[in-house]
Fold:
Amino acid sequence: MSATNSRIVVLVLILANMLDLLPGKILPISILLGTALLCMEGAVPTVVAFSLFLSPCLTLLSNTYSFSATLLVAVLLIPLQIVLVLLHRNDRSQENNSEHLPLFIIWAFVFFAVMVTRGLLGPLTEYRLHWLQYLTVYGTFYGLSGILVVIKRIPASHIVLPGLFYMSFVYPLMEMSFLAVPSMATSEIGLRAWEEFGAISVPRLGGMLVAAAIVCRNTDKRGLFRTSILVLSLALAVPLIVYGYTRQVYLGVLVVVGVYLFKRLCDTKYSRSKRIALISANVLAIVAAGMLFLDVELLSTSRIVTDDALSNSRFTTWHEAWEMILEQPFLGYHVGYFGEHGNSPWVHNWYLEAWLEHGLIGLLLFLVATYFFLRLWILVPINHPLYGWGLLALFQLTVVQFSGDIARNSIMLFFVCVALAWRVRSPKPENKHVFSERLYVEQQTANTVRW
Structure:
């Protein structure tokens, strides 16, 4: 089958899932069929996309065959990733940055040593055992995916179509069409009334899909293909984001769109009219996201009664965590301490939890990762293939400041790997021409890689 025909079949499967047209018994077969077609174009981008957008497919498969999703990741997917890493470990391309992988490996070793040691302090409660299991399995899973991206130099635009395919299975899970979401969502808690709807994970994936589609629209040279991908991504993700009533996703999408438009404004020579248009679009995005945020956070008292997750004030939680940090700022406590003594199961903030439960060394690890994230956003031009990963990392870094704990946010290890191991050095004044020429070569090389 030709590349064009395989893409058409995948797009048809995506649309069928969004309209909930496929019978339940066919859905696992459609996952295998779509994966086979995507692997014909590139096995590594497909595996990476699955690792980033795996939640709907894993839930569907685990419900169909009655097995643990975590067990599937540990027994099947991690060994598959290890095999791919070993097969491609000697791949070399121009200006390959895989020599920087030892930096990530050192960071990851210290990270797991600190986290596991803190997790084993004190009695092994049910929460702590789950925390350790989730972090070790999914942290390894996401870290290996990041290594594959670095070794094969995969641009973020290459995982959009596979990610869109795997993400589309959320609608068959909820047994509704994307067109029916506004009428099916309740006025109090939106889609949270549906047990199959992951109130946190699914809107997050939708926000990341929107960010990836923006990257694809900006970097992919196939006009009709990239336009269809952008339209399908927005049609799939926007209902999940708007009716998910997940506040951090609103903010994350706002930050991504704002930073993207600002970066594009700075990196590209635009006429005055285009600059005004970009600024206006930015303002509209801020206003729209702000209205959604206020609607969920402040204006609906009925939601506070119905759903405790929506009524939980992050500011109260963070203030309480800060007071605990001040009592023991250097060594910290242990995993689950805030859940035992605070007003919430966890702190709902990446940095505060690292400092509170893992001490200054835990906070330092996260600050090092953030430094390399900042290098991605500041140094990499918008038309460089690496910039897309920086934009996705920015979205994830935003949302992990508002929800979940470190283990549940282990997807950040993927972006830490990309930021530490595949990085661009800042240009010296006398070498600006050489730096720009190298980025141009990297961009042209990435654009020739098949998705």
About this structure: Residues 297-311, 427-451 have pLDDT under 50 and may be disordered.
